[in-house]
# Entry
Amino acid sequence: MPYSYDDQNIFAKILRGEIPNDTVLETEHSLAFRDIRPQAPVHVLVIPKGPYVTYDHFAQEASDAEIVDFNRAVGTVCKMEGVEAGGFRLISNAGEAGVQEVPHLHVHILAGRPLGRMLARA
Ligand code: AMP
# Structure
């Protein structure tokens, strides 16, 4: 089934400048900003500017330039936030089982406190 992108999602509105965000980094193809409901002292979201729903969508259909830019943006944010010292978690939720709230690809960078085991049983 082809991926279907809803351009009314909240991150699309952030990218169009329709709602504000707390920007950490902006590059040619990516934007990083602080999560509005932080789950840890560091909680930054990194998103591609292109219309991709999930990580697999992006990995299959984005250009090489977008993929390089996005991964470099993640690395730059990790460095800016100093997360390598104490450790961090990188998460990308997708679809129903992944409990994805916003249908525009984003990775969460979480750090600054012990983050517990990777998965909790529902
Ligand atoms: P997910 O469940 O992976 O789709 O997570 C979506 C994340 O987006 C949640 O952690 C929300 O707190 C966050 N979020 C929703 N709206 C905004 C917003 N306007 N600015 C920043 N973060 C947001």
User: Anything to note?
Assistant: Residues 10, 19, 21, 35-37, 45, 93, 99-102 surround adenosine monophosphate (CB under 6 Å). The longest strand covers residues 42-48. The mean pLDDT is 97.
